């Protein structure tokens, strides 16, 4: 099967308990070369645990985990992977140049350090001690540490948290370029706009299982045409009964209604609630599609 030939990393029927509680429940997923795969889900869905298994930090209770066809704890597999974790520190006294040089030395075929630093512009920080970096600058250094070994699999855990808009878009462009060059990218993020902009495939996890595996466009299409937001006293059961409504539920102090026919829904809404206020209509975004998939109690909080 072509899928299997291009699979860089796989979890097959993996179950995992932590502190006696089931966290992953027969999870199967594949990460393929040349694709950005976004792993999304509400807090506690099991994303970090899945990444821990793929990177060899955790062992499955049952099922199989393979990285480049090998056990992920094998150095031959790990040396082909670059990982950018959310909560890693940097040694304060080393300069950025020294740190990238050190990290590059762990890989069999690293990029030249100057090239690593030049990707999306970090050369100006080369002489800066890591202890003097801002949060956003430190994230950019972490990204360079992840890519310095020319990884075939790049694991990015919330890569643009703490980045300003310009740095965020620069990082998106380098991630896209890496995927276009054939690198497999596994991205976990709570930023659904980021997943929409970057991902070829979105895997939605909930309660230790994959509940959707599709392109962002296909997921958006599945949600239907439009999202209607408004203030209304109508209860969700009545909103759900309006014409063409697929999902309805609270969104802060508003109600959010996903509908296949905004005009029909809004006409009925106006006649059902004379006190309707703050009515807004927009195309369904990935956020709306995932909200429809998970239900109102299982939101992905940015
Ligand atoms: N070391 C641990 N010991 C016990 N339970 C754990 C441990 N690590 C995670 N869990 C539990 O496993 C479940 C899945 O956690 P995980 O960190 O994989 O979720 P996540 O999808 O990454 O969540 P988030 O979006 O909040 O980062 C949660 O219920 C969490 O409390």
UniProtKB/TrEMBL annotation:
<dbReference type="InterPro" id="IPR027417">
    <property type="entry name" value="P-loop_NTPase"/>
</dbReference>
<dbReference type="GO" id="GO:0016887">
    <property type="term" value="F:ATP hydrolysis activity"/>
</dbReference>
<keyword id="KW-0547">Nucleotide-binding</keyword>
<keyword id="KW-0067">ATP-binding</keyword>
<feature type="domain" description="ABC transporter">
    <location>
        <begin position="9"/>
        <end position="232"/>
    </location>
</feature>
<dbReference type="InterPro" id="IPR003593">
    <property type="entry name" value="AAA+_ATPase"/>
</dbReference>
<dbReference type="InterPro" id="IPR050763">
    <property type="entry name" value="ABC_transporter_ATP-binding"/>
</dbReference>
<dbReference type="Pfam" id="PF00005">
    <property type="entry name" value="ABC_tran"/>
</dbReference>
<dbReference type="InterPro" id="IPR003439">
    <property type="entry name" value="ABC_transporter-like_ATP-bd"/>
</dbReference>
<keyword id="KW-0813">Transport</keyword>
<dbReference type="GO" id="GO:0005524">
    <property type="term" value="F:ATP binding"/>
</dbReference>
<protein>
    <submittedName>
        <fullName>ABC-2 type transport system ATP-binding protein</fullName>
    </submittedName>
</protein>
């Amino acid at each position: 099967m072509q899928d299997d030939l291009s699979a860089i990393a796989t979890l097959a029927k993996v179950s995992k308990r932590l502190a006696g509680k089931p966290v992953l429940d027969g999870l199967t997923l594949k990460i393929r070369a040349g694709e950005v795969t976004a792993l999304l889900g509400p807090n506690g869905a099991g994303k970090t645990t899945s990444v821990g298994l793929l990177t060899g930090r955790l062992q499955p209770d049952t099922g199989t985990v393979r990285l480049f066809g090998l056990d992920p704890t094998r150095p031959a597999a790990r040396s082909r992977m670059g990982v950018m974790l959310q909560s890693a520190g940097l040694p304060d006294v080393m300069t950025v140049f020294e740190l990238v040089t050190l990290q590059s030395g762990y890989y069999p075929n690293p990029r030249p350090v100057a090239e690593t630093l030049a990707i999306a512009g970090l050369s100006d920080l080369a002489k800066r001690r890591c202890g003097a970096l801002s949060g956003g600058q430190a994230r950019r250094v972490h990204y360079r540490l992840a890519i310095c070994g020319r990884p075939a699999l790049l694991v990015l855990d919330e890569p643009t948290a703490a980045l300003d808009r310009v740095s965020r878009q620069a990082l998106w462009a380098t991630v896209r370029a890496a995927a276009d060059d054939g690198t497999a990218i596994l991205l976990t993020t709570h930023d659904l706009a980021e997943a929409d902009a970057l991902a070829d495939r979105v895997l939605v996890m909930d309660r230790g299982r994959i509940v959707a595996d599709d392109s962002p466009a296909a997921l958006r299409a599945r949600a239907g045409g439009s999202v209607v937001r408004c203030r209304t006293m109508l209860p969700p059961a009545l909103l759900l009964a309006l014409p063409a409504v697929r999902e309805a539920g609270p969104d802060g102090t508003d109600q959010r209604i996903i509908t296949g026919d905004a005009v029909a829904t809004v006409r009925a809404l106006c006649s059902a609630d004379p006190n309707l206020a703050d009515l807004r209509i927009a195309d369904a975004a990935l956020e709306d599609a995932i909200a429809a998939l998970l239900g109102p109690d299982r939101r992905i909080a940015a």
